[in-house]
Specification:
single chain, 642 residues, mainly alpha, two-stranded antiparallel sheet, 23 helices, 3% strand, elongated
């Protein structure tokens, strides 16, 4: 395929979701039934083109198309497309998962009053994510990074009539904007030292100090977008959006954008910065897993699971194994999308059953569920496959990618005690993952039916089952390699070949993971009462801490500032105004009564003297006699008394 044909194909793939968004906007309300079909067909086309392009261009040399974007002084900033194996992986994953979400949404969002707006923003969201994946420089990537943030805000707050959804959308938007300050600072640092934003023209042979600073600033942005400690509280709140949106955001788009950025700019990171990446990632992984183990909301369990898995991805990049991180990103996209859509299928079916039977309870609280494996066998089967991949059971893709992460982490740790501590944190995370996955499965599908026994439950429509089946098939081992115990395969050998293997870790995982899974099933089967810890269920009270350490101080500062402004600055300004007005009145009085008075008195005096002077020669004998007598009297007084 020629270079021009490749470029045109990539532009077409990126524009098809945008076309989907436009179609959803312009279709009249009277023909709204066309919207989900047209949007899904356009995303299907984008997914097929992405897959064909990936097959044809896999392992081909890196290609860059760029054009002059704008000039800044004497420097020129370009914008274009970067195509390599990493781009192809994300291109295929984003379009396929988005297509699955569109297909599932046909049934899930049917009859929703904001259905057309939903598909419009969903298409725009996919377009923004594809633009982020294809961007060949950091500045262009940042533009699409912000567009992804905006469209996720719109999707999370889709149900505007729900106050919780609106609040969740605001929280996600604000937290990400705070973290994105790091991205802006990193752009300034990189431009100041290299004069370029290009992802392919950096020269990092020297000056490690500024590289560390820029890398840590980018890490701050990643921590916000990929929900790392301490910014992960927005992700659980984002569950207020429609469940298909949760599948798209959590599986293959917004939250993995941060990991993708780390992989893209990996050469920028110094050893010190990479160590910080491991610390952040491994800490987030274990904290997310602990919180997932203490949730009762179906979707929040999956949300904290996503936080934990993102921590594993970030930690893998920090160890230098960015290829391993990309591998787990791929496997996670399939099994986590399958889990979210499976949860959506359960919620949808229970809501339908509630409407017909007029029995109402919280269908997302797993304590109200149970026994659904009989009523929803296809959903149960697909959900179980994806859950097995999440737990890392053998013969499923999660086993291979997690094995690769464990090997890379222990290889990185070496004989340094502090590094070994974080490596064992990853092991603890893997164990906790097994337990919260089994707990979720048990409560929803195996436990004795509770409130669900009052309902007549049916399986979801075929259009919603198709994505579940395809995603569960993508969660099997063959997605990684033909050998079910080997993580080296088509992806890892092409992205970062010669990754170290550790047979001891592989065989230990092969024995321990199934054993722990059985023990977890027995534990939850014979437990007396489900228990939880409040601070874990509340996500470590991060919302409270944010309120205490950020929101309340800012509100207090704003109150003080308002008082200073009103009573201080406004008082001074008003005082000057009153003084000026008073002075003006005084000057006006002086002008009117003194200055004008003197002028008027002078005029009257002159007029009086003039009248007197005129009387001297007025031609009247009486005047002459009066002045003569007056002069005589004055003379007599003068001579008599002086």
């Amino acid at each position: 395929m020629s270079s021009q044909a490749l470029f045109s194909s990539l532009v077409l793939i990126a524009l098809l979701p945008l076309l989907s968004a436009l179609v959803a906007t312009v279709i009249p309300a009277s023909h709204r039934w066309i919207t989900p079909l047209a949007s899904s067909l356009l995303l299907a086309l984008a997914s097929i083109l992405s897959l064909l392009l990936s097959i044809s261009q896999w392992n081909e040399p890196t290609l860059v198309w760029e054009k002059t974007w704008f000039t800044l002084g004497e420097s020129t900033v370009t914008a274009g497309i970067l195509l390599n194996n990493t781009t192809l992986v994300l291109l295929s994953v984003v379009t396929f998962i988005s297509f699955m979400v569109h297909l599932f949404s046909i049934g899930y969002m049917a009859g929703d009053k904001g259905e057309q707006r939903y598909y419009s923003i969903l298409g725009f969201f996919t377009f923004a994510m594809l633009g982020l994946v294809l961007a060949d420089n950091l500045l262009l990537l940042f533009v699409f990074w912000e567009l992804v943030g905006f469209s996720s805000y719109m999707l999370i707050g889709h149900w505007r009539e729900k106050d919780a959804a609106t609040a969740a959308a605001k929280k996600a938007f604000i937290i990400n904007r705070i973290a994105d300050l790091g991205f802006i600072i990193a752009l300034l640092i990189i431009w100041g030292h290299t004069g370029s934003f290009s992802l392919t023209s950096f020269n990092f042979e020297e000056q490690e100090a500024w590289r560390t600073g820029a890398a840590l600033c980018l890490l701050l942005a990643v921590m916000g977008k990929s929900a790392q400690l301490p910014f992960f509280n927005w992700l659980s709140s984002a569950m207020e959006g429609p469940t298909p949106v949760s599948a798209l955001i959590h599986a293959a788009t917004m939250v993995v954008a941060g990991v993708f950025l780390l992989i893209r700019v990996f050469p920028l990171f110094t050893p010190l910065a990479l160590d910080v990446v491991v610390i952040i990632g491994s800490s987030t992984a274990v904290l997310g897993a602990l919180a997932a183990l203490h949730q009762f909301d179906f979707k929040k369990i999956l949300a904290y699971s996503t936080i934990s898995q993102l921590g594993l991805l970030v930690a893998a990049v920090g160890t230098g194994a960015y290829g391993v991180a990309l591998l787990h990103l791929l496997t996670h996209a399939f099994f986590k999308a399958g889990l979210f859509l499976g949860a959506g299928a359960v919620i949808h079916s229970l809501h339908q059953a509630q409407h017909s039977s007029h029995v109402h309870f919280d269908v997302q609280d797993i304590r109200n569920l149970g026994g659904l494996r009989k009523e929803m066998p296809i959903t149960f089967f697909c959900f179980s496959i994806c859950a097995a991949a999440l737990a890392g059971l053998p013969l499923f893709s999660g086993f291979q990618s997690k094995d690769a992460i464990l090997v890379s982490v222990f290889s990185w740790s070496g004989d340094q005690v502090w590094r070994q501590a974080f490596a064992w944190t990853i092991v603890i995370t893997s164990v906790l993952t097994i337990f919260y996955t089994v707990r979720m499965l048990w409560f929803v599908f195996f436990e004795e039916a509770k409130k669900t026994a009052l309902l007549t439950i049916q399986e979801v429509p075929t259009i919603m089952r198709i994505p579940l089946v395809l995603l569960s098939l993508g969660s099997l081992w063959w997605m990684v390699a033909f050998h079910p115990l080997d993580f080296s395969g088509w992806l890892l050998d092409s992205i970062q070949p010669n990754q170290e293997h550790n047979l001891f870790i592989t065989w230990l995982s092969l024995i321990s993971i199934p054993t722990l899974t059985v023990l977890a099933f027995l534990w939850f089967k014979y437990r007396k009462k489900p228990t939880t810890l409040g601070f874990l269920q509340e996500g470590y009270y991060l919302d409270y801490l944010n309120s205490l350490l950020v929101t309340k101080p800012i509100l207090a500062m704003s109150t003080v500032s308002e008082r200073i402004d009103k009573k201080g600055l406004d008082g001074i300004i008003h005082g000057f105004a009153y003084l000026t007005v008073g002075l003006a009145h005084l000057l006006a009085w002086v002008d009117k009564n003194i200055v004008d008075g003197l002028v008027d008195a002078s005029g009257r005096l002159a007029k009086g003297f003039g009248s007197i002077a005129r009387s001297f020669s007025g031609g009247q004998i009486q005047s002459y006699i009066f002045w003569s007598v007056f002069a005589l009297v004055i003379s007599l007084f003068w001579f008599l008394f002086y």
